[in-house]
Design goal:
With 532 residues, the protein is an alpha+beta fold. The chain is built from seven helices and 39 strands. It has three domains: 217 residues, Zn peptidases (Aminopeptidase); 153 residues, Immunoglobulin-like (Sandwich), CATH 2.60.40; 154 residues, Immunoglobulin-like (Sandwich), CATH 2.60.40. Strand 20 and strand 21 form a beta hairpin. About 2% of the residues have low confidence.
Length: 532
């Protein structure tokens, strides 16, 4: 728990994130908000409310769904829920914001609740949620987005009807509360951008902030939320092994970029190395295009990751290192090249990288800003589950099912799938059926443009790979899956066996690697460790 107090009296705001462990936007946004300064009142933040679920990458923890442990009129249903409730009571909070994300979009028909604010009947929560909705739609949402991503608002008239933290705050404390839901159909960068913008605007309305924004007071740099994986023209490896992103100088003064720390969440990504004797964009590890002075660092032998670059000291010569300088209000573009694992280029689509930018102002004051880069690609919904398919009577959960999303702006075609169980005894995927389809083929992908299917003759030896449109036993038994931008698809694998006997996959771990092509001709790969 993090507590920040303003210089004058004011209301107390509680912000929670990570109540559901597989909703990254909630706990990443709360992790930023905890570092904000405020002008008045008190800011209480619990950024990782259900840390066991976050660590496991799952919605629930061992005691179940934390956001179903807050019944109105009776005690909380777990020790963790009780601890969170004690904070709300003891801090005598005046408002709650509970930060979440959803696989879909509220009122779109897909069953999701993303891009929405849900307010209590208690207090003036509905007034605030409607105002924040309008602010996001009119001033924050990217112009390139379809109108389906506009935020919606719903004010409940039945506080306490569900055993959720927001409901109990409204019913038991008669205190206003809002659940904020971003949609996971958008990149993680955008989810965090919209979530933090909503909370920031509310804090201004509620009196915790004066006219200046929290981001302006805590750092001179604002990330533009536009991370993109790049297949640089200087190589022919066909992989998007470079990253580019932008940030803006909000300091009100000329600003010098002095250092950059790079930390991929995938520990296998261990180096940044350009493999070139030239210096410049895509021929140096780091290049920053800025309006006053470009920044560049060409590191001799590459940079071990995670690692840091001192822009004007870590280059191999005087011409190979230079700080970037930005005028007030200007934007700069950062290019990093190329990310590798064991000397092999890595496709960065779908990967996450934590970046910290160090800077210096003319007064000599130094500062830093941290953010997460999540280049859009093939997203994983974190919902892998072992299935006891109805086509058999073995009583075992020998099938596996999980969801993926097309987070790009292009049509996406899934072409290949590699399956590698961590348990070496699991040696085959075989459906044992003469039919073709869900649970009657080794691989089925339900997608919106075109379903994918591969029915392998005599099954697939594991670990092994499936070429979707080539490895089926006939023309009707193999077909690539095609997804439209922003859509989701469901992948089903059946059945996992050991020595010809069906294996219950509950508790097993399987690494899935998916190869795909985009409508612009580029290619990508996403590796997913599924814990069932």
């Amino acid at each position: 728990m993090y507590v920040t107090e303003g210089s004058t009296d004011g209301p107390t705001l509680l912000v929670t994130g990570g109540v559901h462990g597989d909703e990254q936007s909630g706990y990443l946004s709360a992790g930023r908000i905890k570092d904000w300064d405020i002008d008045a009142g008190k800011l209480v933040v619990i950024p990782k409310a259900c840390k066991p679920a976050i660590d496991a990458g799952s919605r629930q923890f061992s005691d179940g769904d934390l956001n179903r442990h807050f019944p109105h009129g009776s005690n909380e249903e777990s020790a963790l829920a009780s601890a969170i409730w004690d904070v709300a009571v003891q801090e005598n909070i005046d408002f709650l914001w509970d930060l979440h994300s959803s696989y879909g979009i509220y009122e779109s028909g897909d069953g999701g609740v993303g891009q929405a604010l849900f307010a209590t009947d208690a207090g003036d929560a509905g007034v605030h949620s409607k105002a924040i909705r309008d602010y996001l739609n009119q001033e924050v949402l990217d112009d390139s987005l379809d109108s389906k991503y506009d935020f919606r608002e719903h004010t409940h008239d039945n506080d306490g009807a569900r055993d959720m933290l927001k409901h109990k705050v409204g019913a038991s404390l008669d205190t206003p509360a809002i659940i904020f839901e971003a949609t996971e159909k958008l990149s993680l960068d955008r989810q965090v951008k919209y979530t933090t913008a909503a909370v920031e605007r509310f804090m201004y309305r509620f009196g915790l902030l004066e006219t200046r924004l929290a981001t302006e007071k805590t750092g001179g740099i604002r990330y533009d939320g536009d991370a993109t994986a790049i297949d640089a023209s200087v190589d022919s490896n066909g992989k998007r092994s470079g990253l580019t992103f932008g940030f803006t100088n909000d300091a009100g003064h000329e600003l010098t970029i002095t250092g950059l720390t790079i930390d991929p969440s995938n520990a296998a990504i261990d180096e940044l190395s350009d493999h070139s004797y030239d210096e410049g964009r895509w021929t140096s590890e780091l290049h920053i295009a800025a309006d006053v002075q470009d920044g560049l660092t060409d590191v001799n032998g590459g940079l071990t990751l995670p690692g840091s670059i001192d822009l004007d000291a870590d280059g191999h010569s005087d011409s190979a290192d230079c700080n970037a300088i930005m005028s007030p209000g200007s934007s700069a573009t950062v290019s990093l090249y190329q990310f590798e694992s064991g000397g092999t280029p890595v496709d960065m689509v779908g990967e996450s990288v934590d970046v910290t930018v160090d800077y210096r102002l003319p007064s000599g004051r130094a500062g830093s800003t941290s953010f997460t880069l999540s280049p859009p690609g093939l997203g994983y919904e974190g919902d892998a589950v072992a299935i006891d398919a109805s086509v058999d009577t073995n009583g075992k959960r020998s099938g596996v099912q999980f969801g993926v999303t097309n987070d790009t702006a292009h049509e996406l075609t899934i072409t290949d799938l590699t399956i590698d169980p961590s348990n070496d005894a699991i040696d085959e995927l075989s459906d044992h059926s003469y039919d073709e389809g869900l649970w009657t083929s080794e691989l089925h992908i339900a997608a919106d443009v075109q379903d994918g299917l591969t029915d392998v003759n005599h099954g697939l030896t594991l670990p092994g790979s499936i070429d979707l449109d080539a490895d089926g036993h006939s023309d009707s038994a193999d077909c690539n899956a095609i997804m439209s931008p922003g859509s989701s698809a469901t992948v089903s694998l059946y059945q996992f066996e050991s020595g010809g006997t069906a294996v219950d996959m509950s508790g097993e771990t399987v690494t899935i690697t998916i190869d795909y092509t985009l409508g612009d001709g580029s290619r990508g790969t996403r590796t997913l460790p599924l814990t069932l």
